[in-house]
Amino acid sequence: GNSVTQMEGPVTLSEEAFLTINCTYTATGYPSLFWYVQYPGEGLQLLLKATKADDKGSNKGFEATYRKETTSFHLEKGSVQVSDSAVYFCALEMGGYNKLIFGAGTRLAVHP
Amino acid sequence: DTAVSQTPKYLVTQMGNDKSIKCEQNLGHDTMYWYKQDSKKFLKIMFSYNNKELIINETVPNRFSPKSPDKAHLNLHINSLELGDSAVYFCASSSGSSNSPLHFGNGTRLTVT
């Protein structure tokens, strides 16, 4: 079946460090891929998405590239801020109706 | 002007009770969802309705019954609550078109004692 695997957290970084959160997927076909972010006490918000191979999604300094050959969608940011501390979820969509399959989430903690 | 609002925010109850969680969206979306997030933050879809019709029904115990009186509301009723039902339940909505983003509510933390 379809699934998403993310690196386990927590990821702890100092402010201005480089961030990578790994995400790989298994799917029968060509899914759309998403990163959602969940700040403490809130619901998830869409961070970025890519709908086909080699597409790059970007938002708020975060980027992820849809790599079909490695079935990956790793999230990167060049310089993290304390305000980026949150849980990040990789997800895929297949079959319509926006049915998302989420990874387990990766908690990011950024220290000043 | 909250887009997706769910009530209550916290719900503490005893095993065997019946409880409901309400959700409303003012985005004009046609599709609404219920997701369950367990203690390890793992999120799993439970149900989805499109314009009041059930379109996704994952393997969920039939103690859980969603109800959509209109396309702006999707409520979740849970009968005979069990300890394992303790989780955060998120309501979400979307336009329903492919790749459109989901808009989530802030969650309802259910604790069954």
Overview of this protein structure:
The complex is a heterodimer of chains A (112) and B (113). Chain A has no helices and twelve strands. Chain A has strands at 3-6, 11-14, 19-21, 23-26, 32-38, 44-50, 56-59, 62-65, 75-77, 86-93, 100-102, 106-111. Chain A is globular. Chain B is mainly β and 113 residues long. Chain B has no helices and eleven strands. In chain B, a hairpin with a 5-residue loop joins strand 4 and strand 5 (43-50). Chain B is globular, with a radius of gyration of 13 Å. The model of chain B has no long low-confidence stretch (mean pLDDT 92).
Counted beta strands of chain B:
11
The chain-level structural class of chain A is: mainly beta
| Beta-strand share of residues of chain B | over 45%
Distance between the termini of chain A: 41 Å
Order of helices and strands of chain B: EEEEEEEEEEE
Give the key terms.
A: 112 residues; mainly beta; 4-stranded antiparallel beta sheet; B: 113 residues; globular
